[in-house]
């Protein structure tokens, strides 16, 4: 009984304590409770992320009309033109999936940033002309209210391509095509070259072509950020993740000649988040492959190239990463402020960088010397053995730095070309079998300078079904199966 | 959709030292306080309402197209009366002054210039153009580049003349002797580099260019590039500071700018 009384007292005490904690608890935690209720209300009301279990703000939306794989300059350009050419404001939902938001390996940021019209294919010249117009009026195209205007740091110094005896005829015919398309290019004899640019050693040079207007180099990072800013203002969703899977459906169809083919249609894109196994399936209508150097892998995910070789199913997307080096050196007596981007007969190129007599340049290696694209490590021996001797031969001012110490390379970096092993020109347009995958890749070193125009072409193809401004039918995927090479001369 | 401002801490390069939005470039002088408040209110509304944002974008586009309208080329006048009259009419319409060969300066008064008074000069080439403070841009330069005997061109304080415009001036290389770019906010050393085509130039004024990063060094490089030309501009010693005690160390190591 005594124990019972103790229990009773204890119980009452507990009850009393509970009552007091209730009173005391409500007084202490009232602000916390209010904020909890506020949070729940906010998530229930429209506009909030109603998911009381966990936060999903980092995941992409569950549905999107267009999914663009790759957030470099080509992917963003396609997104920009899609939003700009849509018939109604907000009609198309676009999602850009980018695996690395620091762009540490993306070709755009590591590019030398040159733009030229000196190509041999009329399509390439037109793409470049359109892009130069875009860059000149970039503040009309990419203006965002209340944000400062973009300064692309464009150097209109032009390109100078040098040709030896063998290449002189090709150079002359190229210049003729360029002038027909409207590019401002002039031919220069060795004598004129010596008068204009006395620092060139014209031995072995038969002809030079000099771009007078609309050629030069600019800051690719600025273009990328300008596009990003504008595209976000236009309502494009960005997602930081990697595309790991395409879910598609197949249809057996018969062609007009009676042959049976399998048409595929992608329904879902699985986007995997960084450093986790979490993924989000995004339902989509159209997928755009703008993954640059990794476009080949993305195409393989969609099943392109899985079939007996020699058939359309078995034709892979021939885009692979190729590593290219760029070196920066200093030469106090080097070419002056007027020097263009000089591309030598041997494939070596260089340009000035800033006011301080720094120069940057490089060279395209031959097929046997191709470096391993596993990583972006720089090979300095390549500069000493391949780049420097030819450069010093062409520009004697650089030679003077050889003695007594070897040339001072101030810095160097490496970047990837999205190299098209078939004919080194871009792939644009839909795939014949995977009906809703469009390509915008494979430009092998001149993607940046053609990005605005290619973006418009792909957007027109998606929205209208055909190319309207510039006819890029020569760059469709089907040429890989048909074996029709559209080759460019003088790519470096 | 309004741009999410918090996440947009991107590197958006600005004009060197001059951070102005596009609207400010042609805005008139207004009291600072009220302008700032008005701007802030508009920005607040634009962040929250699509309509206000669309309205602001529309107004921005209107301003841009106004400049384009002023710079259209007068092809009819060019075909009818020749390039000299067309060029002179364009300059006078913009608010500049024009001088024909052997004549006096023709200033633009407030009213629109009538082509009647210029009709008498159809075959007379234009010698000098003073387009200071005019809203001339890349497209408008078409009208000036047709004047093949132009000797003196003044583009002082033109707000829309930038590096792209300078890259077009090579077409006047045969005749141009005097060029003034003083006070143009958008001209940088990259545009000045393409003036090397103008080998007949005798006088070049590149003073007070806010977008040029290093005026003293640019002056030296321009003088090297155009040996026959008198380059007026910054004093080359402007960027140097006197450090008498460290002089011996400076001369030993090469100093890249």
Automatic annotation (TrEMBL), chain A:
Domain FAD dependent oxidoreductase: residue ranges: 65-461
GO molecular function: oxidoreductase activity
Any one cellular-component term (Gene Ontology): mitochondrion
BP terms from Gene Ontology: mitochondrial respiratory chain complex I assembly
Keyword set, alphabetical order: Oxidoreductase
Matching Gene3D superfamilies: D-Amino Acid Oxidase, subunit A, domain 2, FAD/NAD(P)-binding domain
Pfam families (UniProt xref): DAO (PF01266)
Known function: Required for the assembly of the mitochondrial membrane respiratory chain NADH dehydrogenase (Complex I). Involved in mid-late stages of complex I assembly.
Protein name, entry field: FAD-dependent oxidoreductase domain-containing protein 1
UniProtKB/TrEMBL annotation, chain B:
GO biological process, one term: mitochondrial respiratory chain complex I assembly
InterPro entries in the cross-refs: LRR_dom_sf (IPR032675)
This protein's GO CC annotations: mitochondrion; SCF ubiquitin ligase complex
Superkingdom of the source species: Eukaryota
Function: Required for the assembly of the mitochondrial NADH:ubiquinone oxidoreductase complex (complex I). Involved in the assembly of the distal region of complex I.
Family to which the UniProt record says this protein belongs: Belongs to the ATP synthase subunit s family.
Quaternary structure and interacting proteins, as annotated: Interacts with incompletely assembled mitochondrial NADH:ubiquinone oxidoreductase complex (complex I).
Protein name as it appears in the record: Distal membrane-arm assembly complex protein 2
Gene that this polypeptide is encoded by: DMAC2
């Amino acid at each position: 009984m005594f124990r019972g009384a103790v229990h009773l007292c204890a119980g009452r005490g507990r009850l009393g304590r509970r009552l007091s904690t209730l009173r005391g608890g409500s007084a202490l935690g009232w602000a916390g409770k209010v904020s909890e209720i506020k949070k729940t209300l906010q998530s229930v009301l429209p506009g909030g992320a109603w998911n009381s279990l966990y936060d999903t703000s980092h995941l992409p939306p569950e549905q999107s009309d267009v999914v663009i794989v790759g957030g470099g300059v080509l992917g963003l350009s396609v997104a920009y033109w899609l939003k700009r050419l849509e018939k109604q404001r907000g009609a198309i939902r676009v999602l850009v999936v980018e695996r690395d938001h620091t762009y540490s390996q993306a070709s755009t940021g590591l590019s030398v940033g040159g733009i030229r019209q000196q190509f041999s294919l009329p399509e390439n010249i037109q793409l470049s002309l359109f892009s130069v117009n875009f860059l000149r009026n970039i503040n009309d195209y990419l203006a965002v209210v209340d944000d400062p205007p973009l300064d692309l740091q464009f150097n209109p110094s032009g390109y100078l391509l040098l040709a030896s005896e063998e290449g002189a005829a090709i150079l002359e015919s190229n210049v003729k095509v360029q002038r027909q398309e409207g590019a401002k290019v002039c031919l220069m004899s060795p004598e004129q070259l010596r008068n204009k640019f006395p620092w060139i050693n014209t031995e072995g040079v038969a002809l030079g072509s000099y771009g007078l207007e609309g050629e030069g180099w600019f800051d690719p990072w600025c273009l990328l950020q300008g596009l990003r800013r504008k595209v976000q203002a236009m309502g494009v969703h960005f997602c930081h993740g990697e595309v790991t899977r395409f879910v598609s459906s197949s249809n057996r169809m018969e062609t007009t000649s009676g042959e049976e083919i399998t048409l595929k249609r992608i329904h879902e894109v699985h986007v995997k988040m960084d450093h986790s196994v979490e993924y989000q399936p995004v339902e989509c209508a159209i997928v755009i492959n703008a993954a640059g150097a990794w476009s080949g892998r993305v195409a393989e995910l969609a099943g392109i190239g899985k079939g007996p070789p020699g058939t359309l199913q078995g034709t892979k997307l021939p885009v692979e990463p190729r590593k290219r080096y760029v070196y920066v050196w200093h030469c106090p007596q080097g070419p002056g402020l007027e020097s263009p981007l000089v591309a030598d007969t041997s494939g070596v190129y260089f340009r000035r960088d800033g006011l301080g007599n720094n120069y940057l340049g490089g060279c395209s290696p031959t097929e046997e010397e191709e470096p391993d694209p596993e990583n972006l490590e720089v090979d300095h021996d390549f500069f000493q053995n391949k780049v420097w001797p030819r450069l010093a031969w062409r520009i004697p001012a650089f030679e003077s730095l050889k003695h007594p110490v070897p040339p001072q390379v101030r810095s160097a970096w490496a970047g990837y070309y999205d190299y098209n092993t078939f004919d080194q020109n871009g792939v644009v347009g839909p795939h014949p079998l995977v009906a809703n995958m469009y390509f915008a890749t494979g430009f092998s070193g001149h993607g940046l300078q053609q990005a605005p125009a290619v973006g418009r072409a792909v957007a027109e193809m998606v929205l209208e079904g055909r190319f309207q401004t510039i006819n890029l039918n020569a760059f469709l995927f089907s040429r890989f199966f048909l074996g029709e090479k559209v080759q460019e001369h003088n790519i470096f | 959709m309004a741009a999410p401002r918090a996440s947009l801490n991107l590197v958006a390069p600005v004009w060197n030292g001059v951070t102005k939005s596009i609207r400010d470039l042609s805005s008139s002088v207004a009291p600072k306080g009220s302008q700032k408040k008005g701007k802030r209110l508009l920005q607040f509304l634009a962040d929250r309402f699509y309509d206000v944002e669309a309205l602001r974008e529309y107004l921005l586009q209107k301003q841009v197209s106004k400049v384009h309208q002023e710079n259209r080329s007068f092809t009819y006048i060019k075909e009818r009366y020749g390039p000299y009259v067309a060029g002179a009419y364009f300059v006078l319409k913009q608010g500049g002054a024009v001088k024909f060969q052997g004549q006096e300066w023709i200033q633009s008064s407030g009213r629109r210039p009538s082509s009647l008074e210029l009709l008498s000069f159809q075959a007379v080439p234009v010698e000098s153009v003073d387009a200071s403070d005019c809203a001339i841009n890349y497209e408008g330069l078409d009208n000036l580049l047709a004047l093949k005997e132009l000797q003196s061109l003044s583009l002082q304080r033109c707000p829309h003349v930038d590096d792209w415009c300078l890259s077009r001036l090579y077409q006047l290389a045969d005749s141009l002797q005097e060029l003034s770019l003083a006070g143009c906010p958008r001209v940088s050393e990259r545009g000045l580099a393409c003036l090397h085509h103008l080998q007949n130039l005798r006088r070049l004024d590149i003073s007070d260019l806010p977008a040029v990063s290093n005026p003293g060094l640019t002056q030296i490089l321009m003088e090297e590039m155009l040996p026959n030309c008198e380059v007026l501009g910054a004093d080359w010693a402007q960027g140097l500071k006197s450090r008498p005690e460290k002089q011996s160390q400076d001369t030993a190591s090469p100093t890249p700018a």
